[in-house]
Amino acid sequence: MAAKKILMLVGDYVEDYEVMVPFQALLMVGHQVHAVCPDKTAGQTVRTAIHDFEGEQTYSEKPGHNFALNFDFAQVKADDYDALLIPGGRAPEYLRLNAQVLALVQAFDQAGKPIAAVCHGAQLLAAAGVLKGRECSAYPACGPEVMLAGGRYIDIAVDQAHVQGNLVTAPAWPAHPNWLAAFLSLLGTQITL
Question: Which pTM does this prediction carry?
Fold first, then answer.
């Protein structure tokens, strides 16, 4: 298997598990991952937030870690990458205001490259206009945004993932095993024991 080059779009208050776990897991299997944030460079950090499910009507939020970026956003070109990963948390709600971020999402989708989005990551897909006529899972509170963007919101268990074409989506970090396995399958990654 040839290593793939994956772009990860992150921002301040990205969900801690949704950035840390995929970043480390994809590196572990041999892929190259560039974690970038608009207006930041390699070596700078973004703050993360831990979203947990503790019985209330929505998730709770706690301070997470500082996550170190390893590439400069200003140098990113979609053509240089094989796939895109969009973690959730609070970052997507402001990243979707950045025209360059939206253009990147559109470029990956137009090229048919694998895109993995989890939780609130669907906000970037919706804002980029790539969900029209497509199925997408997300954190349930993002379901209306998926539908307003012309997509079909797929309501699945929090530990499940949904695949349609080049798009792999999931409701939240409990889906990591299924979501990452589906993403690796789209990348052509085979893990043998």
Answer: 0.97
